[in-house]
Amino acid sequence: MTKKEVLDRIRQAKTAHKRWMSYAKALHMGIAVDKNAIPVIETDCSFGKWYYGDAQVFSKLESFKAIEEPHTMLHNKYMEIYKLRKEPLKTGFFTSEKAAKRKKEAQLDVMMEQLFQISNLLMEALSHFEEDIENMSEIEVQRMVG
Fold this sequence. Notes:
This protein is mostly helical. It has helices at residues 3-28, 46-51, 62-86, 97-134, 138-145. The radius of gyration is 19 Å and the shape is elongated.
């Protein structure tokens, strides 16, 4: 893996993340989304497969380690949003369907705001990792890659 290939992979991850966030926004708005928007665990997304696979050669870099937590948090929060969106409304003797819908939408709004905050943390972490790789020589990258 060359320095250019590593940088390309990081940039692809950033682009894929932006696309993934557009799926999350669509889901939040109640728009039907394709199978790419179905939540998966962080090791099963295309970035996760790379991060927990070939990219582990960079695991000694703090900027690389800093990606894991927001990446995991992002997947967990999206799973919560997905489950709540799919959950039937909870109505009862004292709760009308309209009130239940408002409550659910308010919960989803809060969760989406949290998702955006986590997304920003992930993008920052990816940018720091990208900067670290950019600042390395090809030889330094090759030493890490083996």
